[in-house]
């Protein structure tokens, strides 16, 4: 993507975002991509379909896609904004019907071969692992105290096979007719007889790297991904002996086999083929799930909050993982982000925490907790200021951890910024307001959904996710200029995304936050969460 005032733009790689019109950029500005767009909204459950394609569940995008591993072609099967919300795993019955677990809504839905979707059950908290065996459907709840169940496809109550399991995940029936499943909380793989009246679990393998999937190869061996260590293991179900097939990056989620070829997924959206001798081949590159807030650190690098990952962007546009959900000291699902010192950031998490995070040493100091949908964060003097969208409040936290309320009654506030004069500006539905001792006053109106806010040399830059635009406002005169419009921000045109309610204990409610930051040379960095990239805007 490169454009300098002209609406003509060429896509330099495929993207998950679609639009009938390309971006438009004001005269005197140039728009480029800093990072490549993402093909998927991350990659979670994998299953080889009846047509030989790999079906990929994407929690954060509420999407299911089918990947042709021979050509790399990706087709959307269940789109963002559709009937299936936050799918985490999929399976097929003998008639080709697709069943998906909807982890955030606690549902299990069936999409038949005509494309019609219906909910089988909506009372399955953290519904995740799923498999069919001879058209008998098994489901697991990935939570502390989770259940393993067999569903009655005729609509009756499920048969509970096992209770109080510490976070079971993607499962499979082995050649011996037993149900095998990873137990993330125990760092083990277990099995039960799913057809017994009193199923008693047996430990198959332990001392793993936090297993989150189990499949079987043609020789009857377990293949399992390890989310924390990034290992792909082959395990003998008879002895528990382990063989390392490949060492990949942490964040692996699931695996599947296509004609004997093994493919694994990563939270980043990367699909990797595991070859012999420890070799691998990228089938589909990974990228950003969102991105959310952005910051330029004291080292001049661009940092990206991407929920389960925290990245630094290299000069070539590649993403260096600085921290992730399973790395030591990671504060949680990151959303708001602001530098607060050398190697330190103040962050907000979807779990309701405000924290100081030092990724280099893997340390987090939690300043305050228990909030409802935190978004933007800023530092004003010795205080941290954060937006609590769930209650419509703007909060302050001092060094002693005392929480104060600076403003309340705002409508879906997102971004916050402190001006050079110390004024506090907050974006809410339709406008940007200044927070004063007596309440709020309008600074900019006529907006739709302002997200990221940035002030540079008396100019307020607003990322309006509703208008898919970046707007510059002179804070002295009030004059405004749309410097870029039609950006791949937010959902594609005509799509109304369903709420992502969160996945405790891994995250609270997940929502978009199109951030903005500035480099020392005046370059603007913008979160293009629609396509999963970081954009740059520079003066020409």
From TrEMBL:
Region (Disordered): 1-22
Domain SMP-30/Gluconolactonase/LRE-like region intervals: 42-243
Pfam families: SGL
Alphabetized SUPFAM superfamilies for the sequence: Calcium-dependent phosphotriesterase (SSF63829)
Compositional bias ranges of the Polar residues kind: 1-18
UniProt-listed InterPro entries: 6-blade_b-propeller_TolB-like (IPR011042), SGL (IPR013658), Vgb (IPR051344)
Name the record gives this protein: Gluconolaconase
Organism in which the protein naturally occurs: Mycolicibacterium sediminis
